[in-house]
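Blinded run. Sample ID left blank on purpose so nobody reads anything into the name before looking at the predicted structure. Input follows.
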Amino acid sequence: MTDHVDITADQESDLLHLQQTLHAHLERLLPAGNPSDKVRAAMRAGTLAPGKRIRPLLLLLAARDMGCDLHQRGIFHLACAVEMVHAASLILDDIPSMDNALMRRGRPTIHREYGENVAILAAVALLSRAFEVIAVAPDLSAGQKTEAIAELSAAVGLQGLVQGQFQDLHDGAKSRSPDAVALTNELKTSVLFRATLQMAAIAADASPQVRENMRFFAQDLGQAFQLLDDLIDGCKHTGKDPFQDQGKSTLVQLLGTQDAEQRLREHLRSAEGHLNSACDRGVATRQYMHALFTQQLALCH
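Blinded prediction complete.
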């Protein structure tokens, strides 16, 4: 992931089709309820709002690159579960006692639209629904479902998103070393990418060696994404509040923009090596990530 790679018209069409299919699955798995059901409405608003859908798309593309047939309906259940967990984490990140954000995905945050109590309940309900969706996924064996649930639950808990958010809230304003910041970034971002890609490997019946390579790929990819998020913090057109990192000890603040971007590119080079070792039959994952980082980095310049 070191050079500019153009996405062809066919690849753009393929991504659009996957996004549309994914959205249709999310719509079905999170049906609209009674107009008075504010929690359900908040769940849908937090999950169905227009977004890049990076994690579920990555799961689908990686699974296909590892030989999985995307006509297997269960793979979309896994992708939707990942998006529900991600949506829940964003709702919680944004509430006043956390980041107190005003905008997300170009619209008011869920707590501003529905109230903080509804936002918290919607996030909890989304987490619950995500695991239920995996448990009832068609075309997957009981063993695959159990493994997928274990991977995703580990990513959410005390060695994952919860711990990462705690460290960010309580240590973010302190003077920290680059290694300490990188550890927080691992928990905040890499762990959910790891679960996403492990679930893709589980659906594809990948070998232990492939799964290990995908684990390393996810670790580098997560670090690159967090660096990207920090680099574009003050940029317009991100769909969320600018300068959310003001006063925090991020790698951009510690290293400077130029060195942080260089570090990002080093993570991408390492990620590409692990991805190539994991699945050399398909290139869709690699092309998608090249295009995404190229597009997002352009916001910084």
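Unblinding after everyone has recorded impressions. The beta strands are 103-104, 107-108.
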